[in-house]
Q: What sequence folds into this?
């Protein structure tokens, strides 16, 4: 521990975001650079706890205190080793993870938590800059072949680990580019795609084979896959969106978030998409239904596209500014947050339920909503109740549904493979991540349901470990 | 085993029995025999009786005895009656023989002894029945009473003198003993010879002092005459009657304890095969075994001394070998003497431990004190030319006019009276004669060489950076090892410290392939012997040793010291290479590989070990003298044999083979890295260790910038230094001061290794719950090997995280983890029992994550539960709860008071910890809450232990040890000592506070008994508790504690401990409470002492189930510390020592304290929910009250479901053993202790002081006093304080004048208003804890000796005094004013370690001081009159400066005090000094602590002084 009193002497500071005026006119990441001396000072706020709750809070089990200390001491090289030991892709999590670690940081009990996420992204960026991140192909090849279906964070993590263990890994992606949600779900302003490409190139050099536009169960036969590979990891994500089956849903101008966002990402990649195939918010009154991160991604995208106005609806009530009694540390703090997208404008409506869309010429024009409250049903459970007399009507030219996902799509690959689906709609796996079909494993949202990137990576790593064990009898993968 | 002592059973093992005692002798210097000496010696014995003890029966003492010269006149006449004609004195020997009661068994024993006489060429003259009268002795003593007979053996004509006759008697006794031992005689264990000699005879038995005369009518026969007599009164920890173990033994009589006994026995066994003696020739083998292992430590050292004397050394010479002075690093010792000791260190290691040892061969008699002066020994020389020496003064009524000299034995010093020469021979003369007998220095310079003088080696093994990681993995290194263990060692030269105990699984329950070292726990001293203070009293320690073969112990030659000297047991690579390549006559170095074929598993490992042993034996046969065991050069197929296994296995193999001392074992190992590892390697026989991989690791860390600001050479130097210091600290925890004694002493307990394995490789190491063996160990090696050499290396491989010291998601399991801490805090804040049950379910769910022994136990529920409302309520159960000892200072005021309020609300007890308590807390708050801790702790630092503090307690707890760091003292860094804390602790703000490792008034069991008595006097309403830490033998200690009249004994587990502690201690010392508690309960029941004492336990109790298991194992009260802190907001930062606790619990930083959010309600909620859980389980178990549940082992079962590959090999049946005792033995507490307060002199003082107590009127009292009047003034003082508060009465309100010899603890805790004057002398602990009273002592008016040359009070005076004055006209013993924190004293000379650890007050010494003055002194001021100008040589200059007076005011003050001293005591010396002040003033040196000056300067109390840069010493 370099500075046991750092937390007393230094206040939490995070990098500044570029001015809203500037950033809403481009697609680049919103944060400015953070000077090294500021970062090391921030790292020194880490208290090197006897029980680092952050280490538990992080699904990957990142050894946060160790690398905080190393950064404080300026030993970046060692820091990246420790970071990579638990996390294949810190450049992703360092940008898009909501940082549950910070929510459980012990310092957060009575002060602002350590800026763990900023330290993380700085370590990996520094490492790339210094040339410390290089391809490390395995010394020994086992001759076993593994197919990974899906190239989101779970699939990529599984692929990277399995390749390290010496197996030949082929990643199948139905889209035209590798990356899954990282590629087409996360807007460019949150993570520029060169960050993704940088990592994919390394993996390719290490020996991972990527096959794009390869939709297993559609243009790649399941039987072929089973024949050709010794094991399969399913990491296709949770892609079936939650719908809002209310009156007027069939009007034009109402889209799922994941119909909307990829188009912009493709354009950012340089693809040419004709306007008639594109969904743009330009000069439109946009209503986003769903108050989560995807909703915020839509928000930021809509602003950049030049929306007239943007309103985000959230069914639940506005979170408190500070932790509620029943939401104690070290649980994820359910508090009111303002993301970069929120900073850029738009209104947030809480406790609001959309009742009806209406429009003209088959196109949505307005929606009807009502405020709700959550009351005790007598048995201790909270139930939702509409508040009479709070109905509102709102103009809307574009409605984006960002209400989460119900699970993987069953049709096609899953049906053909015959893996069982559990009551939550996800692929059933046992304690070792194996599906009900021997040799076929599942990881990430496909097995777990929609979740965070960091969980996806963890799932992918775990699956890799069990695949390795399945193939070889033993495993040394972490 | 002698009759009366039970067999090893359950967790009880007789080898851990301890004893201590009072010892004394009387001698007529001219050797004039008289019966009067017998009578006087019996009188001495009776006056020492309070130093002994009695067991469960009032009429069974622990043993008493007397050694006399052979009373020829008496025996001649008695023998004649039997028709035996005794020859003249010196031509016959008389044996005192204990025999079986069965006549035929007796006869067979006698025949075997007679046969031995004949075989040795001597004549049996006949037998005499020794008359005995057992009418007064207790039933248990009677049950195993032997028959006493005396045998007379006539010398053969060929025997030329007494000396030769003694040798023959020794040989024939050994032959007789061996013959009886080998026979099949029933009751042969009754056969024992207290003495067999032409010179001395011993009468002893399972008696108390006052039973001696009755039992042995011989002793009152007027014809029974002697010129010298040794007496001894024993205090054993048990109540088991053992006649042979009473003292005196044949040559010695001992007060103390040999800590290194196991090693001494092993080394003696190892040497025996090499014995050659001109006196015995071929017959020398009949003397073997030299040591009778069923004896006590004292009996065994007697065996060794006897052998050395019989084979030609003088008795003093033998004593100097066994109990050498601290010579290494002694500044003023003569070179000749140093050479003697150094030479003899090549022959035999010291028998280390506290010892006042009286020895005699019948014509000379003497005594020697251990190097540290840990036992009292006082003597008078009288005008009639007798000398009386005893553990106390006042054991014999002597007219002061008759006294020529009063003296005390000093540390390491000897004192001898030779009746042939008719004079006292002092230490210098005896030793000068012995040390000059041979040219030892010359022998040494011709034969011994320092390792630095060896030629440099031609080559060094090259470091290999590429493979460091692989090898680290091979030896199980973790990131924590590097970051937490090694980096601080290399950077600061000190071991890292941590906080908040440990909550990880025992090694045997861990799945992380722990290295073998982790299966061993360090033992430590508590109660029966003191730990050493290796820092403040470093002068008694030595880490040097010599490498090379030992020769014949019996007949030393110059080549006996042909050795290579090393200063530290850690060898760097250069040193090792030198040894490997050296070519010196008499040396041959052979390297042996420690490796096995990893694929072959356990059998391969075993075969490799066998081969290693065979190769070593062959090498020794071929002349090897240094064996290097090396684990370099492993590969994909070969794994290292665990270095400890190889070391100990080979050591024991060579001991058994009798070749052990022919070669030295040195380890070249990559495995050793932390202090504990080195301790084990040395403790099991290695002389030195080269941790090559640790060095390479440091180098690697420097290269990788993990260790910065230091170069490799310095890092290695610091690392080695910290290892050496760390090992010394571990040694000193056991009271061992030299490495040579520690080597092979096996001061460890194994947890989780099976008996067969331990018997083979770790012979005689206690291991009580079975466990794994060679197969599992090989498997764990293989797991590490696999990590190092994986089949498919994964890129970016890393070291294991570890997670031992800090929780890690992928690391070792911790009971306190994010989930449990959160649930505990949340449930207690919300008072939510449902969430609490989730917490306790997590803690109790041991099936998956087995962390604890209790996790392996099942509760056995009877068929039907009882309704829960029949179970006693939560309220009464909570009264059995206590919180742990955490001082105000270590934790914040807010946290401390939260616990106090909560515990007072529920009727439980909170504990002050070692830091005093603000008197404001003794008054209840307006809302009815009380912030006063019910338990006031008395620990070694005695901070804030005032009369008022003691009177305000409802329990006084003596902390003998604490779980996190048993055997060590505490330390409160200066930055935690703010103004309030300093006030409460009677110290200075900003100055760090240190509590010594030992209580300086508890060096043995009878001392503890004394402190218990003192505390009971200081507050008769409080119960007295003794806190012990679990280790093997703790039950035996607890039995001793019960006999010492403690009301409560607390058995703490190893894992608790909220304070800061060196990591070695935190992890590796002590054992779980389950074992300690179970052993305690078993041994107390076995001794029928259980009913007299409340048994409490603590050490990470967390749930209701924990409480129930503790009760079933025998506990009836329960302590919680860590959990109570967590409930108060602690989140286990483990930085308590840094003052940066971010939640305001363990900090004094005002900003952080504001962040404290704990509330008494939460703590109350916690205990309520615990109690509720307890009730639920009780209902299921069918118990209505806790009392019913205590000790119900039948309701516990070892978990059948344990499938764990290692844990399934554990065997907990010993833990659940119920001793077979009669039905009347009660198994829980029902009976109050009899403290004997009604006999105290204070009852009279209180009565006579009524006027003062009730009306504050002045009273004056005159009384005689004797040594049996102990703790005088204390109960009176407690009355004063109780009635009049902390300020007491106006000065001199009660004035008491005594005449005579005062017993121990005269004036202890005396408050303001009482003045006690003593004309005479006093024993140890004079003015202990003085709290404002005044003590004056001077020699009797009629005495002719000069006061300033004579010892007048004993050791450890004014210990922990907080206020008051003492004027002592005469010399005081060792450790005068130790930990003084406020008293003013004037004295005319002091022994060693004066003013040690002083924090406040003033001490004026008008005479010579002993060595090590002012060690650890951080406050207060001392003034020493240095007439000879040599004070500086004896002063410890680490923390003080020597200065002139600050100003005239100060000078005036000191001059005034000397005048007062002269006036109050009549001291001629004081008057002379005061009157001739201008001559003396410049000889007065002012001893000023640096830190004290700094703080005074900072506060403006004194002005800054120009400091001279001159550094002394």
A:
């Amino acid at each position: 521990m370099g500075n046991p009193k750092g937390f007393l002497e230094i206040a939490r500071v995070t990098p500044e975001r570029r001015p809203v005026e500037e950033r809403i006119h481009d697609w680049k990441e919103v944060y400015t650079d953070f000077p090294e001396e500021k970062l090391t000072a921030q790292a020194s706020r880490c208290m090197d706890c006897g029980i680092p709750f952050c280490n538990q809070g992080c699904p990957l089990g990142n050894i946060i205190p160790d690398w905080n200390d190393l950064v404080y001491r300026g030993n970046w090289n060692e820091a990246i080793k420790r970071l990579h030991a638990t996390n294949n892709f810190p450049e992703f999590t360092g940008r898009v993870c909501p940082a549950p670690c910070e929510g459980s940081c012990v310092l957060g009990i009575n002060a602002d938590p350590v800026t763990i996420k900023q330290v993380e992204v700085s370590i990996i960026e520094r490492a790339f800059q210094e040339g410390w991140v290089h391809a490390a192909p395995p010394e020994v090849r086992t001759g076993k072949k593994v197919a990974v279906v899906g190239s989101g964070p779970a699939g990529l993590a599984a692929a990277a680990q399995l390749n390290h263990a010496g197996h030949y890994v082929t990643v199948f992606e139905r889209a035209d580019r590798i990356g899954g949600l990282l590629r087409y779900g996360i807007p460019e302003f949150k993570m520029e795609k060169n960050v993704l490409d940088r990592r994919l190139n390394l993996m390719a050099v290490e020996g991972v084979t990527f096959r794009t536009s390869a939709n297993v169960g559609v243009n790649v036969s399941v039987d072929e896959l089973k024949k050709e590979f010794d094991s399969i990891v399913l990491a296709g994500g949770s892609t079936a969106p939650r719908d809002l089956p209310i009156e007027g849903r069939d009007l034009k101008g109402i889209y799922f978030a994941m119909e909307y966002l990829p188009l912009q990402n493709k354009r950012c990649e340089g693809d040419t998409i004709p306007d008639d195939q594109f969904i743009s918010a330009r000069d439109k009154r946009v209503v986003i239904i769903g108050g989560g991160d995807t909703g915020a991604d839509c928000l930021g995208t809509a602003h950049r596209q030049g929306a007239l106005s943007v309103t985000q609806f959230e069914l639940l009530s506005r979170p408190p500014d500070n932790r509620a009694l029943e939401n104690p540390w070290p649980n994820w703090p359910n508090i009111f947050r303002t993301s970069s997208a929120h900073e850029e404008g738009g209104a947030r409506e809480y406790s609001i339920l959309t009742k009806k869309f209406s429009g003209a010429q088959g196109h949505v024009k307005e929606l009807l909503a009502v405020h709700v409250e959550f009351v005790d049903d007598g048995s201790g459970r909270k139930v939702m109740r509409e508040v009479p007399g709070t109905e509102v009507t709102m103009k809307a030219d574009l409605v984006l549904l960002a209400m989460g996902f119900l699970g993987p799509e069953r049709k096609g690959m899953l049906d053909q493979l015959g893996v069982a689906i559990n009551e939550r709609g996800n692929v059933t796996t046992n304690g070792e991540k194996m599906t009900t079909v021997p040799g076929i494993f599942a990881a990430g949202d496909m097995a777990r349901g929609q979740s965070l990137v960091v969980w996806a990576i963890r799932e992918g790593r775990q699956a890799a470990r069990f695949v390795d064990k399945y193939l070889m009898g033993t495993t040394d993968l972490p | 085993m002698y009759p009366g002592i039970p067999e090893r059973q359950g967790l009880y093992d007789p080898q851990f029995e301890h004893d201590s005692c009072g010892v004394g002798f009387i001698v007529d210097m001219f050797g004039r025999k008289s019966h009067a000496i017998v009578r006087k010696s019996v009188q001495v014995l009776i006056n020492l009786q309070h130093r002994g003890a009695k067991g469960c029966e009032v009429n069974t003492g622990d043993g008493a005895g007397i050694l006399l010269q052979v009373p020829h006149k008496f025996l001649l006449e008695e023998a004649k009656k039997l028709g035996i004609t005794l020859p003249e004195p010196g031509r016959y020997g008389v044996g005192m023989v204990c025999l079986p009661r069965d006549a035929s068994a007796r006869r067979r024993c006698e025949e075997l002894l007679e046969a031995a006489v004949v075989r040795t060429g001597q004549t049996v003259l006949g037998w005499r029945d020794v008359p005995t009268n057992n009418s007064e002795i207790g039933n248990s003593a009677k049950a195993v009473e032997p028959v006493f007979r005396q045998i007379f053996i006539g010398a053969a004509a060929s025997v030329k003198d007494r000396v030769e006759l003694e040798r023959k008697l020794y040989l024939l006794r050994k032959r007789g003993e061996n013959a009886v031992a080998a026979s099949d005689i029933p009751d042969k264990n009754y056969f024992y010879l207290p003495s067999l000699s032409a010179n001395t005879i011993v009468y002893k038995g399972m008696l108390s002092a006052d039973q001696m005369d009755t039992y042995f009518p011989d002793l009152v026969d007027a014809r029974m005459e002697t010129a010298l007599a040794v007496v001894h009164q024993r205090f054993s920890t048990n109540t088991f009657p053992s006649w042979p173990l009473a003292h005196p033994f044949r040559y010695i009589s001992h007060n103390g304890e040999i800590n290194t006994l196991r090693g001494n026995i092993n080394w003696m066994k190892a040497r025996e095969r090499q014995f050659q003696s001109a006196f015995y020739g071929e017959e020398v083998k009949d003397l073997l075994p030299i040591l009778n292992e069923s004896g006590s430590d004292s009996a065994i050292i007697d065996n060794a001394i006897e052998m050395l004397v019989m084979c030609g050394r003088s008795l003093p010479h033998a004593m100097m070998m066994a109990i050498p002075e601290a010579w290494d690093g002694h500044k003023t010792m003569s070179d000749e003497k140093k050479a003697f000791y150094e030479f003899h260190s090549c022959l035999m290691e010291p028998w280390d431990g506290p010892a006042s040892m009286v020895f005699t061969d019948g014509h000379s008699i003497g005594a020697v004190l251990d190097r540290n002066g840990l036992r009292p020994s006082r003597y008078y020389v009288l005008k009639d030319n007798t000398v009386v020496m005893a553990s106390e003064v006042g054991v014999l009524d002597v007219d002061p006019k008759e006294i020529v000299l009063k003296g005390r034995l000093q540390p390491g010093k000897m004192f001898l009276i030779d009746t042939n020469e008719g004079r006292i021979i002092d230490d210098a003369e005896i030793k000068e004669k012995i040390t000059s007998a041979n040219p030892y220095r010359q022998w040494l310079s011709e034969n011994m060489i320092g390792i630095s003088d060896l030629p440099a080696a031609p080559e060094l093994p090259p470091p290999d950076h590429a493979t460091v990681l692989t090898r680290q993995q091979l030896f199980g290194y973790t990131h924590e090892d590097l970051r937490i263990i090694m980096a601080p060692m290399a950077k600061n030269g000190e071991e890292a410290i941590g906080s908040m105990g440990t909550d990880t699984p025992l090694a045997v329950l861990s799945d992380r392939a722990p290295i073998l070292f982790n299966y061993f726990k360090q033992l430590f001293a508590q109660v029966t012997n003191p730990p050493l203070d290796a820092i403040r009293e470093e002068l008694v320690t030595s880490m040097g040793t010599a490498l090379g073969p030992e020769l014949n112990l019996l007949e030393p030659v110059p080549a006996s010291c042909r050795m290579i000297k090393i200063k530290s047991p850690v060898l760097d690579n250069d040193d090792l290479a030198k040894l490997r390549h050296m070519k010196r006559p008499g040396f041959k170095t052979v390297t042996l590989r420690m490796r096995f074929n990893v694929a072959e598993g356990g059998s391969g490992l075993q075969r490799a070990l066998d081969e290693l042993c065979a190769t070593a034996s062959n090498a020794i046969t071929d002349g090897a003298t240094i064996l290097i065991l090396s684990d370099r050069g492993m590969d994909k197929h070969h794994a290292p044999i665990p270095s400890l296994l190889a070391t100990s296995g080979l050591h024991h193999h060579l001991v058994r083979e009798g070749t052990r001392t022919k070669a030295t074992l040195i380890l070249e190992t990559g495995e050793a890295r932390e202090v504990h590892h080195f301790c084990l390697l040395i403790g099991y026989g290695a002389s030195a260790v080269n941790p090559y991989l640790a060095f390479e690791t440091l180098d690697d860390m420097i290269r990788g910038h993990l260790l910065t600001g230091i170069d490799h050479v310095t890092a290695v130097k610091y690392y080695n230094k910290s290892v050496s210091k760390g090992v010394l600290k571990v040694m000193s925890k056991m009271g061992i001061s030299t490495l040579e004694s520690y080597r092979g002493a096996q001061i460890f307990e194994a947890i989780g290794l099976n008996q067969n394995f331990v018997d083979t490789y770790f012979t005689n190491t206690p291991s009580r719950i079975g466990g794994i063996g060679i197969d599992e160990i090989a498997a764990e090696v293989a797991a590490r090997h696999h990590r190092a050499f994986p089949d498919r290396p994964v890129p970016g491989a890393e070291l294991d995280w570890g997670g031992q010291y800090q929780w890690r998601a992928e690391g070792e399991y911790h009971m306190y983890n994010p989930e449990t801490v959160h649930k505990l805090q949340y449930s207690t804040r919300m008072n939510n029992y449902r969430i609490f049950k989730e917490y306790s379910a997590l803690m109790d769910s041991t099936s998956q994550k087995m962390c604890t022994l209790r996790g392996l136990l099942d509760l056995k529920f009877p068929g039907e539960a009882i309704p829960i409302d029949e179970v006693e309520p939560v309220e009464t159960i909570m009264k059995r709860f206590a919180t742990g000892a955490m001082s105000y200072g270590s934790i914040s005021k807010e946290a401390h008071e939260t616990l106090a309020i909560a515990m007072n609300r529920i009727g439980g007890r909170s504990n002050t910890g070692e830091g005093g308590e603000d008197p404001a807390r003794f008054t209840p708050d307006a809302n009815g809450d009380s912030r006063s801790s019910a338990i006031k702790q008395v620990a070694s630092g005695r901070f804030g232990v005032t009369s008022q503090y003691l009177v305000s307690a409802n329990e006084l707890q003596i902390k003998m040890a604490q779980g996190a760091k048993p055997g060590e003292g505490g330390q409160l860094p200066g930055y935690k000592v703010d103004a309030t804390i300093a006030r409460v602790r009677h110290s200075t703000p900003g100055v760090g506070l240190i509590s010594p490792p030992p209580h300086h008034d508890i060096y043995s069991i009878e001392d503890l008994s004394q402190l218990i008595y003192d505390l009971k006097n200081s507050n008769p309403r409080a119960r007295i508790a003794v806190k012990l830490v679990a280790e093997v033998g703790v039950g035996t200690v607890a039995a001793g504690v019960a006999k010492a009249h403690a009301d409560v004994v607390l058995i703490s587990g190893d894992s608790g401990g909220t304070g800061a502690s060196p990591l070695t201690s935190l992890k590796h010392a002590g054992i779980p409470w389950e074992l300690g508690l179970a052993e305690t309960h078993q041994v107390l029941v076995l001794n029928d002492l259980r009913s007299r004492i409340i048994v409490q336990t603590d050490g990470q109790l967390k749930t209701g189930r924990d409480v129930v298991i503790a009760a079933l194992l025998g506990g009836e009260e329960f302590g919680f510390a860590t959990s109570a802190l967590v409930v108060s907001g602690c989140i286990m930062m483990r930085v308590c020592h840094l003052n940066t606790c971010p939640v305001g619990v363990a900090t004094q930083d005002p900003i952080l304290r504001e962040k404290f959010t704990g509330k008494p309600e939460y703590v109350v909620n916690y205990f309520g929910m615990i109690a509720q859980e307890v009730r639920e389980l009780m209902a299921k178990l069918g118990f209505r009250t806790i009392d019913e549940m205590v000790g119900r082992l039948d309701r516990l079962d070892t978990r059948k479901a344990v499938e764990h590959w290692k844990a399934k090999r554990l065997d907990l049946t010993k833990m659940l053993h119920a001793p077979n005792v009669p039905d009347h033995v009660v198994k829980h507490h029902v009976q109050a202790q009899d403290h004997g307060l009604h006999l105290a002199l204070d009852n009279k003082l209180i009565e006579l002081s009524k006027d003062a107590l009730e009306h504050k009127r002045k009273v004056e009292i005159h009384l005689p006093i004797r040594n049996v009047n102990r703790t005088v003034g204390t109960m009176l003082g407690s009355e004063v304080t109780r009635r009049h508060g902390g300020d007491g009465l106006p000065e001199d309100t009660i004035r008491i004048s005594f005449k005579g010899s005062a017993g121990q603890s005269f004036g202890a805790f005396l408050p303001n208003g009482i003045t006690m004057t003593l004309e005479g002398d006093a024993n140890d602990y004079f003015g202990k804890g003085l709290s404002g009273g005044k003590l004056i002592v001077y020699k009797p008016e009629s005495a002719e000796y000069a006061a300033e040359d004579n010892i007048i009070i004993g050791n450890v005076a004014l210990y922990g005094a907080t206020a008051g004055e003492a004027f002592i006209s005469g010399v005081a013993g060792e450790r005068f004013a130790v930990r003084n924190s406020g008293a003013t004293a004037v004295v005319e000379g002091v022994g060693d370690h004066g003013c040690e650890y002083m924090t406040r007050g003033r001490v004026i010494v008008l005479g010579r001081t002993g060595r090590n003055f002012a060690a650890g002194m951080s406050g207060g001021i001392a003034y020493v009159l240095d007439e000879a100008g040599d004070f500086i040589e004896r002063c410890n200059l680490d923390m003080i400066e020597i200065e002139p007076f600050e100003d005239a005011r100060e000078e005036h003050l000191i001059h005034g005090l000397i005048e007062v001293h002269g006036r109050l005591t009549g001291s001629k010396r004081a008057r002379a000094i005061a009157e001739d002040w201008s001559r003396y003033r410049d000889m007065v040196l002012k001893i000023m602590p640096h830190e004290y000056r700094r703080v005074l300067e900072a506060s403006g109390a004194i002005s800054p002084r120009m400091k001279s840069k001159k550094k002394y010493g």
In short: The two ends of chain A are 26 Å apart (CA to CA). Residues 453-472 of chain A form the longest helix (20 residues).
